[in-house]
Design goal:
Layout (H helix, E strand, L loop, with lengths): L5 E5 L3 H13 L3 E5 L2 H5 L8 E5 L7 H10 L6 E5 L4 H9 L4 E4 L4 H13 L6
Parallel strand pairs: 1-2, 1-3, 3-4, 4-5
């Protein structure tokens, strides 16, 4: 039986969550959306195969969420999205093992490429 990968989307902006979810679903992925890192961490959703997380959110940031998952032994390939791109952000993401770092607004194809490469275990361009 063919199983579609689950992509968790964690962003405090509902319009971004909805648009990202719709895009990924149209490409054949299952999605689950969360307004913050804490909601994702306490969710009863099945384990996500990939995480798309916002860099800046109230509470735990996307980068902190990624680091928390690594520390807890539940590392998930991660795509980081941010409305505040900088070289420092990209460097911190790369040092933390983030699979891809995209600036909002991003092109749909860029996100799809990042998610597909993250799921395949390849290192996407960032």
């Amino acid at each position: 039986m063919f199983s579609r990968p689950l992509v968790a989307i964690v962003d405090d902006d509902q319009s971004i969550r909805d648009a990202t979810s719709n895009l990924l679903q149209s490409a054949g992925f299952l999605t689950a959306t969360f307004a913050d890192a804490e909601s994702f961490l306490t969710s009863s959703e099945p384990r996500a195969a990939c995480l798309v997380a916002d860099m800046r959110m109230p509470g735990m940031s996307g980068l902190q969420l990624h680091q928390h998952l690594i520390a807890s032994g539940a590392s998930i390939p991660t795509v980081l999205i941010t409305a505040y791109p900088s070289d420092a952000t990209r460097l911190r993401a790369r040092e933390a093992g983030i699979d891809c770092c995209l600036a909002k607004p991003f092109a749909p194809d860029e996100l799809l490429e990042c998610v597909r490469r993250a799921l395949a275990g390849a290192t996407p361009k960032s």
